[in-house]
Amino acid sequence: MSNKWIKTCNKSDVSEEEPYCFAVSAEKNIAIYKLDEEFFCTDDLCTHGNASLSEGFQDEGIIECPFHGGAFNIRTGEPTSYPCINAIRTYSVKIEGDTIMVAYDGE
Amino acid sequence: MEEVVMLATVPERVVIVGGGIASDACAAELRQSGYNGSILMLCGEPWRPYERPPLSKEALDDKGSIEERFFLHPESWYDENAIELRLGVHAAGLDIRQNTVELTTGEKIGFDRLLLATGGTVRKLWIEGGEAPNVHYLRTKDDALSLASALTQGSRIAIIGMGVIGAEIAASARKLGCNVTAIEPETGPMTRALGSQLSNWLAGIHHKHGVQALYGVSVARFVMEDGLVRAVECDDGTLVSCDAVCVGIGIIPETGLANDAGLAVANGIVVDHQNRTSVPSIFSAGDVAELPAFDGADRVRYETYQNAAEQGATAARAMLGQAADNTGPCTFWTNQYDLNIQSAGKVSDEFSIVWRGSMGDDGFVAFFLDGERLVGAVAVNRARDMAVARKLVAAKIDVKPEDLASDVLPLRSLLKALSKN
Ligand SMILES: Cc1cc2nc3c(=O)[nH]c(=O)nc-3n(C[C@H](O)[C@H](O)[C@H](O)COP(=O)(O)OP(=O)(O)OC[C@H]3O[C@@H](n4cnc5c(N)ncnc54)[C@H](O)[C@@H]3O)c2cc1C
Ligand code: FES
């Protein structure tokens, strides 16, 4: 399926301290981050377990999972800390006015 | 110390004895830190390194998952990173003069650096019938496979010990529709890990979910029939009929190799803040290692996942002569029913508690204070707060109780105030 831009939240909903959790479907959430006035988006679910990354600790470009010490690079989705091994998916983001749009293919 | 072979400045052969998370994290960190020499991991179990925490939780719901899932790394990762795994292999001896490990087969393996990450084995109940086939312990995948078979709908399960493992098995068994009776000598579940107030609260949760619990009583004997335990008799005379028994009464650190070789051993293998044992080329990490406590006052042995992983990584860096320090607070989590409980630092009745939210809410945090000093925190379904609380505890700071209690004040602002000071 080709990417569709979906409307998520407003720019003001996201801070560098608190990523925003957005439900794209009943089963799936994405996490939206603010970083140096830019916005990024990844899957919300940690690849290690059942944790919501938007509840984690964002330290500049790294999101630390709130559960077991794993962490990911927000820009690339690559794991940066044990025990996370698999990358999280990242999504393209664009801004329209105050709205954050995310390229999401429905999967 | 003079007898010890000189340390090769750059190690070329690292041998890891164990195969749990401390071992796996050590191997991963060695490669991450640029080590190019050989890594040989001697794994006592027939499985490549895996996660133990799911074994008392989600794995019990789905027996098939136990064999297939919960590995720390895919098999290919070990090949890609040139980590040689030998599964089902037991190190039987350690020669600290020759720097060799001897296997049960007699084979000798030399090393420049060694990690002893042998973990612990379950403490057994030494009473008649303690070895019966319907008495279960839980430490390994093999244990979980046999326990999962016993937890069938309607079966009567007697749980002995409501520590973390017992409490998790109780929750999983209720979810699977078993009739659960728990026998615990303390006044409630997980008293050692949570302190009495939170333990009482958790006792209420288990009660609400239908666990029949007998607190303040111990096991007197098993009533046997045809080689199986049919009932547990408690020291107050109560008789608990059962189809299976699950015993969760702790672990004994596997210090035998270190002991026999003459390394310093106390309540675990004695290591410094870099996980180095009394012999400079030998390191120890995880449940088997006894290290300087976070507050420096004492020596401790943790039995938690994240500490084991961090210690394995610390040992790896220290083996390579890189900066390494393991003196973070103890952290752990447990999942029971719909609760995610996370803990950091010291939790005990000797400290005062400041509540953020209150017990009984969907989520709350209990901060443990020694005077004004924040020493520990327990969060229930409050992952976001805990992500910060862990760092606050690690920072060893004095706090104002009202700041911790105020749900309007983001905890992160306390951390920020700290970095400004
Ligand atoms: C069911 C269960 C649930 C848990 N849940 C949680 C949780 O929710 N949260 C948490 O923080 N912690 C939890 N833990 C604790 C956590 O799993 C342990 O702290 C962690 O596994 C310790 O890792 P380790 O590598 O030190 O030792 P271990 O995992 O014990 O691994 C040691 C390995 O060494 C092998 N070995 C021993 N001697 C030898 C030898 N001579 N030669 C070769 N191999 C040898 C053993 O067979 C074993 O496989 C749980 C533990 C269990 C059992
Ligand atoms: S769930 Fe994220 S590190 Fe375990």
How are the elements arranged and paired?
The complex is a heterodimer of chains A (107) and B (421).
Chain A: E1 4-10, E2 20-23, E3 29-35, E4 38-43, E5 57-59, E6 62-64, E7 71-73, E8 79-81, E9 90-91, E10 93-96, E11 99-104
Antiparallel strand pairs in A: 1-11, 2-3, 3-4, 4-9, 5-6, 6-7, 7-8, 10-11
Chain B: E1 13-18, H1 21-32, E2 38-43, H2 63-68, H3 75-80, E3 83-87, E4 91-95, E5 100-103, E6 108-110, E7 113-116, E8 120-122, E9 135-136, H4 141-150, E10 156-160, H5 164-175, E11 179-184, H6 191-208, E12 212-215, E13 219-225, E14 228-234, E15 239-241, E16 244-247, E17 251-253, H7 256-261, E18 269-270, E19 282-284, E20 289-292, E21 299-300, H8 305-319, E22 331-336, E23 339-345, E24 352-356, E25 364-370, E26 373-380, H9 383-394, H10 401-405, H11 411-420
Parallel strand pairs in B: 1-2, 1-7, 2-3, 7-19, 9-16, 10-11, 10-16, 11-12, 18-20
Antiparallel strand pairs in B: 4-5, 5-6, 8-17, 13-14, 14-15, 20-21, 22-23, 23-26, 24-25, 25-26
Helix pairs in contact in B: 1-8, 9-11
Flavin-adenine dinucleotide binds at residues 17-23, 42-45, 52-53, 55-56, 90-91, 117-120, 138-139, 165, 254, 257, 286-287, 303-306, 308, 332-334 of chain B.
Structure, described:
The complex is a heterodimer of chains A (107) and B (421). Chain A is 0% helix and 45% strand. Chain A has no helices and eleven strands. Chain A has strands spanning 4-10, 20-23, 29-35, 38-43, 57-59, 62-64, 71-73, 79-81, 90-91, 93-96, 99-104. In chain A, the strands form three sheets. Chain A has a four-stranded antiparallel beta sheet with strand order 2-3-4-9, with no helix packed on it. In chain A, strands 5-6-7-8 form a four-stranded antiparallel beta sheet, with no helix packed on it. In chain A, strands 1-11-10 form a three-stranded antiparallel beta sheet, with no helix packed on it. Chain A is globular, with a radius of gyration of 13 Å. Chain B is α/β, with parallel strands linked by helices and 421 residues long. Chain B has three domains: 2-121 and 252-319, 3-Layer(bba) Sandwich (FAD/NAD(P)-binding domain); 124-249, FAD/NAD(P)-binding domain; 338-420, Enolase-like, domain 1. Helix content of chain B is 27%, strand content 29%. Chain B contains eleven helices and 26 strands. Chain B has helices at 21-32, 63-68, 75-80, 141-150, 164-175, 191-208, 256-261, 305-319, 383-394, 401-405, 411-420, and strands at residues 13-18, 38-43, 83-87, 91-95, 100-103, 108-110, 113-116, 120-122, 135-136, 156-160, 179-184, 212-215, 219-225, 228-234, 239-241, 244-247, 251-253, 269-270, 282-284, 289-292, 299-300, 331-336, 339-345, 352-356, 364-370, 373-380. A five-stranded parallel beta sheet of chain B has the order 3-2-1-7-19. A five-stranded parallel beta sheet of chain B has the order 9-16-10-11-12, with helices on one face. The two termini of chain B are 44 Å apart. The interface between A and B is medium-sized, with 15 and 26 residues. The structure holds flavin-adenine dinucleotide and FE2/S2 (inorganic) cluster.
